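Troubleshooting log. The previous structure file for this entry was overwritten by mistake, so regenerating from the original sequence record. Sequence copied from the archived sheet and checked twice against the printout by T.R.
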Amino acid sequence: MGKNFILSFSFKLIMALCFLIVAFIMAMVFGAVDVQILDVWEAITSSNPSKEALLIRELRLPREVGAMLVGAALSVSGSIMQGMTRNPLADPGLLGVTAGANAALAITLALLPSVPYFGIMIACFIGAALGTGIVFQIARMKRGGFSPFRIVLAGAAVSAFLHAIAEGVGIYFKISKDVSMWTAGGLIGTSWSQVYGVLCFVLIGIAASLFLARHLTILSLDEEVAVGLGQKIKRIKALLFALIVVLAGVSVALVGNMVFIGLMIPHIARYVVGTDYRYIIPMSALIGASFMLVADTLGRTLQAPFETPVAAIISIIGLPFFLLIVQKGGRAFS
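Regenerated output below.
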């Protein structure tokens, strides 16, 4: 039975990878200006591309690679959050992670306008850690520990407060336009230097998540069981928290605030492969990357040549999903 499950998981993983490839091709071909598949192939493989292929390589290709990285990072961080807190409503965008990173980004742009992109990422890491820490401290104040709804309410309140800080900083320092370009949650203007900046963090974060996946699975079932099996709970939680901060922080540094991806995708992955995080994490990464590609393609084509914000498209899909999970008590896709 175990061998059959592994074969089944391998098949599902291959199917998810094939869907990712199809979504990537669609994202590269369709847009305000439709291009030919041969131009896309030339842009990827040729050392001396034509003018059309060069434009694809320098404008559309880094944007879609960035979309895949952000989708995978937010989905994996959402999976870790849901497993670590045993909260089906956990999401980096709902629990103050991305809002904290967003506020830190606004403050950095105001006080250090010439800071390099790496400095922006570090600021986002710090902001994500502070935002999440505040939410968890508020949620644990009341006797009885964490509850899914209490932590979501705390996350909503803290996120609103941190967004207000970002807006206030933007108005006071007259950089509202710059801050809005980040907070809108989009991939316009994504460059290769930005993609290279986040690539290493995302790949290392996902690899480390896979390394800790077995511990996360046990932790997601019962903390006392994890202690009984000899797991060092505090150390594992600290490592998992660091991964959430890194993955969500680099996402905000690249596209700004993005809500609901980290909520939806882990539930879909769990529905496909079960409750073992050794399978949930890689499936979440692939499905999340595909979902972000599809959302960005829709954003570029629905009102071409104008763009619909990707964050708006994801929110339109994500809010009903969130309400469905609330109605089902977190079991809608489990």
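The first helix runs from residue 2 to 29. Archived copy saved in two places this time.
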